[in-house]
Amino acid sequence: MGYLENIISDRKLIDHCSMRLDILYFIGYDIDEELPWHSTISRTRQLFPEDVFESVFTKVFSLCVEAGMVSGHTQAIDSAPVKANASVDTLELKVPEEELESHLRKVATSARWTKSSLFVKVKMINQIKTSVA
Asked: Is the pLDDT of residue 114 over 60?
């Protein structure tokens, strides 16, 4: 979802997914069921190397292609069994703003920046505690 919606922040990704019924249905959550904290995604990403996530994404994507859910250069996702009230003429093509590799680099950079900035904040707090004591 982050790639399709051009979201690189884990916090924004959770907020976005919690507001979309189609996404909740797709990932198997009920409407009143809370999604995990954004930090759960960040911690999980830190536990495994990038290539693990990339291989899982590639495998899921290839399964979608084999099942005939994806073809050509355009991707569309509709997982909600809701009766539509829209005209085909008003549909807009959803195209990611950038290539997948570029998006993954931004996510990785954002995750590293968050981790390093957190380390700096903890170090500053410890220095303040030491100087006050």
From this structure: no
Count of other CB atoms within 10 angstroms of residue 75: 16
In the structure, what pLDDT confidence band is assigned to residue 51 with cuts at 50, 70 and 90? confident
Transcribe 72-118 into DSSP letters: TTB-------------GGG------SS-HHHHHHHHHHHHHHHHHHH
Backbone angles phi, psi at 61, to 5 degrees: -65, -45
Q: For 71, phi and psi rounded to 5 degrees?
A: -155, 160
Counting Cα atoms < 13 Å in the Cβ hemisphere of 119 gives 6
Between 74 and 10, whose confidence is greater? 10
Residue 133 token pair: 């004591």
d(CA 96, CA 99): 7
Q: Is the pTM of this model over 0.70?
A: no
